[in-house]
Amino acid sequence: MKATGTPPLRSRLLPWPGPNGQPAYLLGESGPGSHLWRLADEMEGVLLRMGAELVQHGRTLAGDPKADARQLRYTVFRLAESLTDAHRIAESRKLRLEQLEESETGEESDSYVSGQSVRQEERS
Predict the structure, then answer these.
(1) 90 burial class (0-12, 13-18, 19+ CB within 10 angstroms)?
(2) What is the pLDDT of residues 26-55, one digit of tens each?
């Protein structure tokens, strides 16, 4: 860790995609206490709750002999979206844990997000 007195630049994978579906990051030195970090935390909670409700709906629909193919396809599509959201949230949390470990040890590491190498490094 550099002894400049300035905190390292933190990055956070956001729970929503950027333009064209690529990963979106929040960069800043304010960290978890900032308004945008709290907003991202709240959105993660919303997405996970919606996913849990959708899983329950899918189970109910799968057991309904009157469910038609259109209903089932729509539900499968929505479940795939929900799984994508949950995966993005898990990646974000993994990266934040790695950043926490790096700040405790003072070491840098390479992380992989959605097949892209993201170099975690301290900036002054």
Answers:
(1) exposed
(2) 887 667 788 888 999 999 999 999 999 999
